[in-house]
Amino acid sequence: MAAADSSGQAKLIDGKEIAATIRSEIKVEVDKLKEATGKVPGLAVVLVGTRGDSETYVRSKRKACEEVGIASFDADLPEDVSEEEVLKVVKEFNSNPDIHGILVQLPLPKHMDSYKVTDAISPEKDVDGFHPANIGALAMRDRTPLFVPCTPKGCLELLKRSGIQISGRNACIIGRSNIVGTPMAMLLQRHDATVSVVHSRTADPAPIVSRADIVVAAVGNAEMVRAAWVKPGAAVLDVGTNPVEDASKKRGYRLVGDVAFEEVRQKAGHITPVPGGVGPMTIAMLLKNCLESAQRILQG
Ligand SMILES: Nc1nc(=O)c2c([nH]1)NC[C@@H]1CN(c3ccc(C(=O)N[C@@H](CCC(=O)O)C(=O)O)cc3)C=[N+]21
Ligand SMILES: [Mg+2]
């Protein structure tokens, strides 16, 4: 999209386009793997219940797999399925040699212990990167996790492909979730950024965010990050996908990010839109993790 111009508009980081490029790179590698081994990567997706947003994400993941030649294996289980049954399904996928990646869509119903379920995924097939063995390795210097969680990995790729320097710069993560904020902080620290994490109990986030050259907003709070918080020229990555009622849309809502896009774009140097920013990268990185897993398992 348009370069940063004299009117002070941030460069738009087009995650949708970058993700499409990555998916075509993955397709080439899938074809090569198939040529060399006669096998394709396999991804198992476990969906419990009928949450609308989860069904939408899972549908996008399965479609993306199909497009690059990754075989997808589905387990769609009812909302009231027992934890024991989910664990059984995960274990079957662990021992299925055609499956190289397993993802259990979160959140799970309240009657289940999510940690118990995600801990049951073999760390070698943990394409979400949520297993403590993978998160633990991510947190440690001089260790390489088998998998890095998809959203943080997608954000890193956006920074790299947009030519944004990470080493030596201040980064601020807004939010401390297990699946985005915390692994994002660890990943940027591994890339030699000076990392701050602000969250719901932070007394005064504004001056901390204002020092950051790189801001990653991952709180799930619509348009919370305002221009006054943002350092001029900062790179702002928006992980939020908050539904806001909108009768003019077919599905009755539109998605807005955690960043007040229109005002922040006047001040930032780079910014990701919602939709079309981080979201499509999350899916592209899932495919990449699955490909890399298959390469590791099939080719060493
Ligand atoms: N085990 C697990 N792994 C996950 O990676 C995981 C999860 N559970 N639970 C929910 C969150 C959320 N998430 C998104 C993926 C794609 C988009 C995405 O593609 N968004 C599009 C818009 C999609 C739309 O229009 O509905 C975009 O931002 O352009 C968003 C959010 C993955 N998650
Ligand atoms: Mg629970």
UniProtKB/TrEMBL annotation:
GO terms for cellular component: cytosol. It holds the Pfam family THF_DHG_CYH_C. GO terms for molecular function: methenyltetrahydrofolate cyclohydrolase activity; methylenetetrahydrofolate dehydrogenase (NADP+) activity. One of its GO terms (biological process) is tetrahydrofolate interconversion. PROSITE patterns: THF_DHG_CYH_2. Residues 149-296 form the Tetrahydrofolate dehydrogenase/cyclohydrolase NAD(P)-binding domain. Pathway: One-carbon metabolism; tetrahydrofolate interconversion. Residues 13-128 form the Tetrahydrofolate dehydrogenase/cyclohydrolase catalytic domain. InterPro entries: Aminoacid_DH-like_N_sf, NAD(P)-bd_dom_sf, THF_DH/CycHdrlase, THF_DH/CycHdrlase_cat_dom, THF_DH/CycHdrlase_CS, THF_DH/CycHdrlase_NAD-bd_dom. Keywords: Hydrolase, Multifunctional enzyme, NADP, One-carbon metabolism, Oxidoreductase. It catalyses: (6R)-5,10-methylene-5,6,7,8-tetrahydrofolate + NADP(+) = (6R)-5,10-methenyltetrahydrofolate + NADPH; (6R)-5,10-methenyltetrahydrofolate + H2O = (6R)-10-formyltetrahydrofolate + H(+). PANTHER family: C-1-TETRAHYDROFOLATE SYNTHASE, CYTOPLASMIC, C-1-TETRAHYDROFOLATE SYNTHASE, CYTOPLASMIC-RELATED. Belongs to the tetrahydrofolate dehydrogenase/cyclohydrolase family. Catalyzes the oxidation of 5,10-methylenetetrahydrofolate to 5,10-methenyltetrahydrofolate and then the hydrolysis of 5,10-methenyltetrahydrofolate to 10-formyltetrahydrofolate. This is Methenyltetrahydrofolate cyclohydrolase. It comes from Symbiochloris irregularis.
